[in-house]
Amino acid sequence: MIHPKARSRLRSALAATCALAYLTGMGLPAPLAAQEGAAAVQDVTVADVMLPLGGTLLRAPKLTASGTRLSKDELAAILKSDSTEPWETRLARLDAGSLTIPVLTSEHAGPGDDRQTVTYRDVVARDVKSGRVRELTAAGATVSAAAGLNRGNGTYGQVRATDLDLAALSRLYTVPGDGKGPVQRVYGTIQVADVIYSDARGTTVKIARLDGRDLGGRQVPDGWNGAFEIVAAGFQPPHDRRTFAAAAADLIEATALGSLDLQGLSVSNADPQGPVLFEIGRATYATGPDSGTVLENITVSRGSLRAHLGRLALANVSLAPTIAALRSFAAEPEPRPGFSDAEMRRLTPALGGLTLADLSIDLPSDAELPKPPPQDPRPAPRAAAPGKPSQAKPADARAPDPKPGDPLAVTITAAPTRRVALREAALSFGPPQDGVPSASRLTLSGLSLPADLVAGAPIVGALPAYGYRDLDLDVVADAALDGKARDLSLRDVTISGRDIGTVRLAGTLGGIGPELFSGTLPATTMVMFTGSAKSLDLTIENAGLFERFLAAQSKDLSLKPDELRKEYVTASLLGVPVILGNTAAAKGIGAAMGQFVMKPGKLVLHAKSKEPAGIGFIDIGAARSPAALLDRIDVEAKAN
Q: How far apart are CA 567 and CA 569, in angstroms?
């Protein structure tokens, strides 16, 4: 639910903080028993520190280590950019009470033409021992992207991290591994405040505060630096989709995050057709017993259109299907371009459930919709004769404002707000099959909307004609897909409306597989040839709609409601059986319909195919008459 540009800035903030921690760690001493007899504790300053770390170059004009036993030459040797000694070994020799860097610059190149520079102010690392930092802070930072599609600039407020394991950070980013080792924690906590970034396209991203806990991971074959470079490059040579898929799977599987708390996210866009503002009050992610993602106070606004969602929660999200699909792509014998639609579905994470609450959408009134400028019906004024003043009124002249109490004064009242609202919704999924959930259940409670919004839609589009101005609905849709039996079970599809009634549908369709949900024309077309109807249960409960329908029809036909009711009863008892073949089942349906019309309450219809495979959709479409189909179905109907 986070905007793509917001995710990009968030990754930049975390990556830049990692780089900051990495450099400070390079200059933070850790004690060794062999150094106990070295020089006394002192302050040491080195200048012009420059460290290349993959595609990132770190620069510090001045670095001061306080409370260290290292000499200036020893510290400079540890920070030497072209040293052949591994960072992890050097970190084991460092020890300092604190490390201060007035200005720290991180320069990163790529992907493509992108060039990003982050400059931190007043960087301080405290209590550094054996490659671990108790606390790391920076007063703030500026960000500049000088080239590429995301060029722009921004700022960070205060940055703070605790319990940094710099040796683990070094291993993850620079030392390859098999991706199966233990998780190495890099940060205990990390906080970034007041992030602002604006790009050249007029988009501004703001984050009031970001808090993370227990961030770490496993070593991967290309090292994290190498894997990030491969993923950022996409499918560009020398990489192909196999290397991309392998690196992406490595990073997803290797990353560990205990919790994340983001507050005050906003994304604004200066769109020429009207500025757009997207806001999230708070977003949290956690693992363990309280695992899941929760978004609170989500708002989208554009002009007079405004949508607000009180809460959105995702539960039991698993990236296992995504990782498995990427691994299969990485194992392909031949390189292939991009991902197909079917493969993208396989990359979809598994989602146990989704709930939302307090959704409201304020729609612009017709008066607020953009309209063409009015045309002035008056003829153009004629030019005045020479020497005579013009008698034409100026084009912008208007009548004087009416005086208070003037009977001709007109009061303009603002149009009422048209709102779509939803009190609560829940969506749950079963395990996926080829990227399609094996089961799903949707419930919508308290869905309210203006009736004219459904005008023209099948069935419900007639509701405004029956006097409904606002609709208050509840919806349930529960279905399960059996891939082996190729059956789609509609366990419960219910729509109920206040002062309207309830329609409940259940049934089983045969010849349905996961390919139906691919969205491609061949798959949906094939269903017409392979699909079949096996059973159907239909229940209709009246709560006022039939009476309104009868009143509207009586008015149109100039009949009294009771007279029209009798005609409908006669048509049900006599006409319906004739249309359906005049069989016993047809007469039973007609009798039930007649009873319902006479006393509108509940109408129930059970239908089941006599053939185990069901009646094919193509047979239903080609049937010469309803009677031909009714002979192949066992039917039971009753009313009230």
A: 5
The arithmetic mean of pLDDT across residues 65-75, rounded, is 89
534 near 608, Cβ under 8 Å?
Answer: yes
Task: Assess contact for 164 and 187: CB atoms under 8 A.
Answer: yes
Q: How far apart are CA 397 and CA 376, in angstroms?
A: 13
How many whole angstroms separate alpha carbon 369 and alpha carbon 363? 10
As a whole number of angstroms, the distance between CA 193 and CA 139 comes to: 10
Supply 595's token pair.
């009873």
Cα–Cα distance measured from residue 350 to residue 368, given in angstroms and rounded to the nearest whole number = 42
Other C-beta atoms closer than 10 Å to the C-beta of 200 total 12
365 within 8 A of 318, measured Cβ to Cβ? no
> Distance (Å, rounded) from C-alpha 574 to C-alpha 172?
81
Angle between helices 166-174 and 4-26 (to 10 degrees): 120
Please compute the mean of the pLDDT values over residues 30-52 and round it to a whole number. Answer: 66
Distance from C-alpha of 622 to C-alpha of 236, rounded to nearest angstrom: 52
> 209: which strand partners?
193, 263
Q: What angle do CA 197, 245, 182 make, to 5 degrees?
A: 85
pLDDT of 124-141, one tens digit each?
A: 999 988 778 999 999 999
Write the CA distances from 412 to 135, 409, 415, 460, integer angstroms.
Answer: 63, 10, 9, 33
Helix (H, G, I), strand (E, B) or coil at 219: coil
- The reported pTM is 0.77
- Residues 389 and 383: their CA atoms lie apart, in Å, by 10
- Looking at every residue in the chain, the average pLDDT score rounds to 83
HEC string for 107-130: EEECCCCCEEEEEEEEEEEEEEEC
Bond into 377 cis (ω within 30): no
Strand-pairing partners, residue 306, are 301, 362
Q: Is 87 helix (H, G, I), strand (E, B) or coil?
A: helix
pLDDT at 304: 82
Which residues, in sequence order, are CB contacts of 477 under 8 Å at separation 6+? 440, 441, 442, 492, 493, 494
Question: Which amino acid, 256?
Answer: A
Tokens describing residue 155:
């700022």
Q: Give the tens place of pLDDT for each residue, 599-620.
A: 999 999 999 999 999 999 999 9
Phi/psi at 472 (5° precision): -125, 105
Residue 110's nearest CA partner among 247, 226, 246 is 226
Beta-carbon contacts of 33 under 8 Å, excluding residues fewer than 6 positions away, are none
pLDDT for 416: 60
* C-beta neighbour count of 23 within 10 angstroms: 27
Query: Are 435 and 514 in contact, with CB atoms under 8 Å apart?
Result: yes
Find out whether 601 and 617 touch, Cβ atoms under 8 Å: no
d(C-alpha 538, C-alpha 633), whole Å: 15
> pLDDT grade, residue 183 (50/70/90)?
very high
Q: In angstroms, how far is CA 151 from the centroid of its own chain?
A: 25
Asked whether 50 and 59 are in contact (CB, 8 A), the reply is yes
Tokens of 264: 């005050």
Which residues neighbour 563 within 8 Å (Cβ) at sequence distance 6 or greater?
A: 554
Q: Determine the Cα–Cα distance for residues 118 and 60; give it in Å rounded to an integer.
A: 12
**pLDDT tens-digit profile of 293-320?**
999 999 999 888 899 999 999 988 888 8
pLDDT over threshold 90, residue 104: yes
- Contact status, residue 37 vs residue 176, Cβ threshold 8 Å: no
The answer to whether residues 441 and 459 touch, using CB atoms and an 8 Å cutoff, is no
**Residue 69's pLDDT is what?**
85
